[in-house]
Design goal:
The chain is mainly beta. It is 7% helix and 39% strand. It folds into two domains: 139 residues, Immunoglobulin-like (Sandwich); 108 residues, Immunoglobulin-like. The protein is elongated, with a radius of gyration of 20 Å.
Amino acid sequence: MKNFAAAYALLVFWTSCERIIPFDPEDSDPVLVLYADLNPNLSLRAHLSRSVGILDQGDPQRISDAIVWIEDSAGLALDTLTPDPLEDGYYRSPLKPSAGQGYTVKASWPELPVVSGFARPMALSGDFRMDSIGFSPGTGMFVTPHLIYRVSIDDDGVPGFYQLEFYEDQNDTAFGQQVIYAGTDDPLVSQPVFGGNFGGDISFDNALFLGQNRELVVRVYKYSLTSPTKMKVYKVDEATARYRRSFENAQNSGGPFTQPVPIYSNVQGGLGLVGGVGHLWIRP
């Protein structure tokens, strides 16, 4: 459907002209829903499904027999993604996109129009640091013991949004690991970038220190103050931030009788998100 509440489809699964998808209950034509994060640290992965309107019955249909490919900024096809034999709707390529370069991900399926989305992978090539500067025993129930770190962000001058996550230092993956709650009093972090309430991560816009270095003092609340800690730094583009913010708003919209919240999309011909992302692991 060209204009519909995509919230249900997007809840099931997981940058170019941008638009907001309005809700029109009378417009129920299905469209392809495409998702892909372009991250220079990871091989390319995309997901494709067929939308289901909010007034329709059933689940979104995962599409495993489409043609999905990636083009460079000149329109030259770089690779065709292969359907994942173990996960319906997922497509993979060994290609790792280069940071800062523009790419378009496209998908074609005989029953619906072709969809496409454009993004630039984000680089984190500066000097990022995480220095331990002490700990606090806490002052009671509402201020528990925590470690204190000075985090240094060396921005590359490309507009984007940072997200800091903290973990026990096991290996360079977040899979199967729990994010450790962290907080900061830095005025840069005045409200959650991605909507909702502050949780385990710290997120902020780089607009106030574009191309400069910024330091934040961060509190990390761990069960063990002596075990090693690591930090994962994400940087995402505006399209990804807008999608995540609208998705968070949709999840907290208040119930089935409230007005549907539009989900942000930058996919042409359909719905979804092709976003630019980058990440880096940092240890003290």
